[in-house]
Amino acid sequence: MIEKICFKKYRKIKDLAFNFSNSINVISGTNGTCKSSLLHIISNSFQAVHKNCSWLNEDKCIDVLRKINSNINPKVESLTCGDKAYNDPAKGHKGPLYKVDYYDKNPLEFRRHNSKINNRYSVKPRYPKGSSDSLPHCPVVYLGLSRLVPFGEFNNEEQIVDIKKSLPIEYVEKVADIYNEFTGINISSTVPQKLGDVKVRIDFNSDYEGIDSNTISAGEDNLIIIINALVSLSYYYESIQSNNKVESILLIDELDATLHPKYQLKLLELLESYSAKFKIQICFTTHSLFLIEYAIKKSHNVIYLIDNIDSIIPLDDPDI
After folding, report:
1. How far is CA 178 from the centre of its chain?
2. pLDDT in tens, 112-125
3. 3-state secondary structure at position 290
4. Packing angle of the helix pair 289-297, 261-278 (nearest 10 deg)
C-alpha cells in the first residue's frame, strides 16, 4: 500500500525518496545503511485491522493472524532503541521527518515524539487541522531476525507455550504441502508455538524418524515461518471484500539468512506468486547477490544503498 517515502531526515537517510512496487521490493546494500529502518517505517505507517472493519467477511482471521505471527503492525518504538547519547533519529531537525505516499489514501507526514517506553522515541503522523485522516488499516506481518534463533538455543522450556488458535485446516494443509515441496519432509500434528517473547514457530512431527520441529536446521525453521506468514495472509485475503491494490504487507529482514541459494530462488518465486494472487506487498532485506541478480532479471523493485558514514547513497538503476 506504500507507493513512496520522501525523507527529510531520519537517522542516516537525508533528503532522499524511495519508490515501492505494490508487489516485490528488494532492499539491499552495505552494512549500516538503514535497510531494517525502512522496514520499521513501513510497519509504523499502518494500524492493525480490527474486527469492526467493514470489509471483513469473517473476523476470525484477525485473531488467528495476531496469534500465529510474532509481530503484527509493530511500531518504530518497539523495534528500535535509538542511540545511547541522545535518543533522537534526527538530531537538530525540526518538523516532519518524512512523508508517506499511499496507493489509495491521502499522504501523511510523520514527526518524532517521546515514547512511553523508557529512552525510546515514537514516530507519529501530523494530521492537518480539520482533517479526518488517520493511519490506514492494513495487516503488516513483520518477520525480524529473532525468527532465526534456533530451538536448541532457547533453553527456557517453561516459556514454550502452544497457541490454541490456528489456521483453518485447509490452510494448515497448504503450509504442509508447500514445506514438503521445498524439503521433501511430510509434516503432521502442526501447532503454532510461542517461544517466550522471541518468536512464534510451528511445532510438528514428520514421517521420518528423528526429524521434527526440534531437530530441523535453522534454515528449515526459517522457511516454515515464512511460509506460514504467507499462507496466513492468503487466509486474510480470502476473508475480506477486496477493494484495494494492496490488502496486506509482509516484511522480512534478511530473507536469505540460513537459506541455501536453491531455497532462496524458490522462495522468491513463491513470494511472487502469493503477492500477485493475494495482493500482498512484500518488502525484504538481503545480502544475497544471487537473489539480487534474479530480482533484477525479473524487473522487481531493487533498492541498493551505500554507506557514507553519516548518510547513505542509493545506487541509481542498480545492476549486478
Report:
1. 20
2. 988 777 778 899 99
3. helix
4. 40
